[in-house]
Amino acid sequence: MSTLREITSGLRFPEGPIAMPDGSVVLVEIQRGTLSRVTPDGKITVVAETGGGPNGAAIGPDGKVYVCNNGGFEWHEMGGLTIPGEQPKDYIGGRIQRVDLATGKVEDVYTQCDGHPLRGPNDIVFDATGGFWFTDHGKIRPRERDRTGVYYARPDGSSIREVIFPLDAPNGIGLSPDGKRLYVAETYTGRVWAWDLTGPGAIAPSMGLTPNGAALLAGLPDYQLFDSLAVDGGGYVCVATLANGGITVIPPGGGPTEHVPMPDPLTTNICFGGPELRTAYVTLSGTGRLVAMEWPRPGLRLAF
Question: Beta strand pairing status for 116-117 and 121-126?
Fold first, then answer.
């Protein structure tokens, strides 16, 4: 693997990076409650104030940024790291937000599904038809934790469906290069599940004891937790890994994984950009940094 280079520091728990055509990276700062832009020289500018806890982010077919807002956290400083905690006292619920990059205008698109409020939307991926999948990680309170799942929605606010329920703190989500498989990482179990898709927002019917008939793509030993993920052009599922900070690289057919270590136990996300999508951008959230490295394969070009 190539040398890691730091693009910027001083971010307040960055996540949800999007590599832009101009070489900048748009990302969220969860603790700050903003969508921000980092230019190649490391300058940070606020694009929009989302409030709550902006988390996963993706460009939609309209060119706007769709943000999974988890509703925020209580925050802790420990050993030089910033660590998110339980549901905050000012929590008003989770939501999917639409942000205009040009004006900074923020709109709520979804706050509930079939009468169930969104609790902690976390990560998002658009398919080729312009619909998007997202995970709801849920919130933690002193004596309980939400049961949540995976949703499919249209960006115009016309349709939202809960497709997979329940999962254990679903976090990262992505699609295979051909768009026919959906991957979801569970944080606390250290597992990545895979479902075959039969169409937009539809998983293949299956019987079994796994969640909604999923195939287990990977399950990590020891104390390793999964955060967000991206799929590269070779179909490898690249999952940000907590505690054992780094990127876990999982072959598309499962099998032995590779660990790319990072200098932060709270490594939360990866995206691809640069010439031929060979640059991997990684958010090191505990220490508030955005770093980059050359990736051995080109990234997967996103739908929008």
Answer: unpaired
